[in-house]
Design brief:
The structure holds 2 protein chains of 2 kinds. By secondary structure, chain A is an alpha/beta fold. Chain A has helices spanning 2-9, 51-58, 81-87, 104-111, 120-124, 128-147, 163-176, 193-210, 221-227, 245-249, 252-259, and strands spanning 11-22, 25-36, 40-44, 66-71, 74-75, 89-91, 181-185, 213-217, 230-235, 238-244. Chain A folds into 2 domains: 1-88 and 179-261, Rossmann fold; 100-177, no CATH class. Chain A is globular and about 60 Å long. In chain B, 68% of the residues lie in helices and 6% in strands. Chain B has helices spanning 2-28, 35-60, 68-89, 95-121, 128-144, 190-208, 211-221, 223-228, 233-256, 269-282, 287-307, 315-331, 333-346, and strands at 147-152, 155-160, 173-177, 182-183, 261-262. The two termini of chain B are 13 Å apart. Classes of the chains: A alpha/beta, B mainly alpha. The interface between A and B is large, with 44 and 36 residues. The complex binds adenosine-5'-triphosphate (ATP) and magnesium ion.
Chain lengths: 261, 359
Amino acid sequence: MTDIAKNENDIMLEVRELSIQFGGLRAVDELNMKVKKHALYGLIGPNGAGKTTVFNMLTGVYKPTTGAIFLDGANITGKSPVEINKSGIARTFQNIRLFKGMSVLDNVKIGMHNQVKYTAIEGILRFPRYFKEEKMMNAKAEELLAVFGLENEKDTLSQNLPYGKQRKLEIARALATNPKLLLLDEPAAGMNPNETAELMNTIRFVREEFNMTILLIEHDMKLVSGICEELTVLNFGQELCQGETSAVLNDPKVITAYLGE
Amino acid sequence: MKKQKLNNLITLGGTSVLCVVMAVLYSVGALDGNHMLKGMLVLIGIHIIWALSLNLTVGILGELSLGHAGFMCVGAIFGGTVSQIIRANAAECPPGIRLLITLVVSGIMAAVFGLLIGIPVMRLRGDYLAIVTLGFGEIMKSIANNIYLTLDANGLHFGFTKPPENVDEATAKQILKGSIGMQTPQDTNIWWVAAILIITLFVMMTFINSRSGRACMAVRDNYIAAQSVGINVTKYRLMAFTISAGIAGIGGALYAHSVPMITFGKFDYNFSILILVFVVLGGLGSMRGSVIATIILYALPEMLRKVNENIVNARMLIYAVILILLMLWKNAPFFINLREKIKARFKKSDTARSGGAEA
Ligand SMILES: Nc1ncnc2c1ncn2[C@@H]1O[C@H](COP(=O)(O)OP(=O)(O)OP(=O)(O)O)[C@@H](O)[C@H]1O
Ligand SMILES: [Mg+2]
């Protein structure tokens, strides 16, 4: 009994029989998944397998047709994206979604939106709380930018950043919301091998520094085998294989799915 | 960050100094020789207030509003009614206090209209706001042209399409006469306009550079990402739209009290578009741009009139050509490249360019 309870407390994210139907297409079918606290967990699979769709359900962008999602023991199924972010999930996007017209620093500060409390009136009339909280935000945002080596570009318009740095900024912005669970959708896409290696270090660092649980989608097998401890492989919306990284990657089913029959 | 702050200070400081200098010159009679400028100053100021308020919706929130004149109209109606009631019932009330009460009421009423329109529309994504505001502006104008208000000893009487009956003829005073409009006390003067303009600019800039303003720009730049970082998008869209409407209403009331007789036909679709043109050509989201564009584009047709009597007939044509050229200058790739080249020559070392919040 105590054993089970303890076990449950170790789980950051639990997904139970999660499915979603788009018209005739069952994009995700009865997915079960448990991500332990502090884990680096990978979600992989061929193109169109339904990985991003899983993220969209986890973050409330799509409402699952059936199934349930638990974050740190709390049922978050069917909540709105805003509520889900407030309960502790932050994400990045496969097709980068930065606030293009705003500076790098402002992008991160927007991530901290719910961590400061001053109201619109206090902001407009420049009450003391505005200055106090803005100062705190600036300091914290700059710290975060430094983690990703973006401190010298804080005033740059985010759309003017090179691709690799845009991806990093998205991670920084997600972290700024102070999440328990970080979802990264293809963080290494479009990066060269050097950048990818650097990114792997950064992801490891983020996990330690922020005591973060990370679930990531990635096609780059070097990154996946390099940093993920556990994997779930999706194929046509269904779980193909699940378990420790090396075991999964050597599973003949997985190899067939990736290479074709 | 430093640079952006400096830019904001320049905009606010520059505009304030300009306002005060103009108001002083006007008050000491230095402009008496220049009738055109003297007549234009108050109107330019009010148009800047309108452009600034619209820029909040279009530039900062990224929503198209085609009925901004509707909110000005609301402000003018409520403002004009309030000031006339005060004039009738409390003649000893100084004009300054009367105008202050008027502006507060008209601002609140226009904001309430903004809120009521925003509540259903701001939940939706897409171009609904443009469609709804377009309708609102036209409806507001038509309603205003058909309202009759009469004040007598028993209070306010309301009539739609015709003056109210059973009024106490002895004490009756017509406040609003449908398409004939209303005769407001001329309480607006250049100092009031200057003060409201400076306050409006201040509010815009502090709003943009605050948590709430950033949230609005985040929604503009990426709706889904804004939600993903926990921003209640509907709340901030409503907030910005309501502020924008309220300030437009205050401008409407100022306008209503700057002319002896106000008719509501002025607040039509074309007028909304005129203000939109100021905003777009000044630069979306750029408050400084709105100020400058309004001054230039408002004064231009009048200037053309003065250059040469023969031009008078062609002046709207020339105005249109200048608008097109300005648009090209801002948006055509050829001119953008040219501008970049010129810029690069002037400041080679300057790499950072702060955008969105640059006001
Ligand atoms: N909103 C939607 N409406 C209809 N079909 C959708 C929708 N979103 C996703 N799909 C479909 O669901 C399937 C899974 O898509 P998804 O984006 O999750 O794949 P993925 O595993 O992330 O692929 P990739 O590796 O290419 O990013 C695809 O067939 C896609 O066309
Ligand atoms: Mg995907």
